[in-house]
Amino acid sequence: MRLASILRDGRALPALAGDRGVVAIDDLKPGLPADAMAFLEPQAWQEVVALARQAPDGVFVPPGEVVFTAPYRRPRKIWGIGLNYREHAADLSESAPDQPASFMKGDHTIVGPDEPIVIPRQSTRTTVEAELGIVIGRYCRDVPEEEALDYVWGVTTVLDQTAEDILQLNPRYLTRAKNFPTFFCFGPELVPMSEVRERFGSLEEIEVTTVVNGHRRRSNIVAHMMHRPASLVGFHSQMMPLFPGDIISTGTPGAIVVADGDIAEAVIPGIGHLKNSVRAEI
């Protein structure tokens, strides 16, 4: 069972997605929280999963009959990781850093599946970057790497955008280049770690691919990251607290320049398929 949000009458509703289809949590039990972040709490998650297992097939609908949106819109923090695959660093004529090259993004950058990525007027070279997103599940502060994944709720599919021409003006413009509206897409589903372990055993062999206009452009696996998910969680928890719903976007196998009218996709087999159109700002 996976966590998502769907649109109904213009309103986002937390939902569950599984083998039987998709169901709004409100259809399982009215009056439960209206924000999917509430169901990252273990007891709340276990309750709704139990309700779904007991529910009749008739409450579920096929995924193609619902409109998915971003799983949630107000995480406390979004951490991005730059140059986390050695091959991607080489693309940019950069050396892969010994420590994570991290940056923060505001929640105003969030859009969901099928919402447009908007190339800002200030940029003539905007890139899209498929990434594996790590979703924090409980308060996490100063944890060792070997325990870090115990604090992760699950994973998701991400498209992270960069105004690369702005960044090339000065490396100190990273925050500016990364924080235009629509520069962080995630979803459609959050996959709990229990399913990840059952399906893959670990995160190591998960493959991340950036696709533009139907063409696979760059692909790599988590095992080839310089700084793997457990290391990233531990490292950032030593800097500041991580809270449920915080997202760490773990870096891309390759950034692809996009233009008005393109279709960008993040494809992670077994995890998710995120697709967004691209348009230039008017």
From TrEMBL:
Gene3D superfamilies: Fumarylacetoacetase-like, C-terminal domain
Residue span, Fumarylacetoacetase-like C-terminal domain: 77-279
Pfam family, one: FAA_hydrolase
InterPro entries per record: FAH (IPR051121), Fumarylacetoacetase-like_C (IPR011234), Fumarylacetoacetase_C_sf (IPR036663)
Record keywords: Metal-binding
GO BP of this protein: small molecule metabolic process
Presence of the UniProt keyword Plastid in the record: no
Recorded GO MF terms: catalytic activity; metal ion binding
KW Metal-binding (keyword) present: yes
Top-level taxonomic group: Bacteria
Stated family: Belongs to the FAH family.
PANTHER family the record matches: FUMARYLACETOACETATE HYDROLASE DOMAIN-CONTAINING PROTEIN 2A (PTHR42796:SF4), FUMARYLACETOACETATE HYDROLASE DOMAIN-CONTAINING PROTEIN 2A-RELATED (PTHR42796)
Protein name stated in the entry: 2-keto-4-pentenoate hydratase/2-oxohepta-3-ene-1,7-dioic acid hydratase in catechol pathway
Organism, scientific name: Thermocatellispora tengchongensis
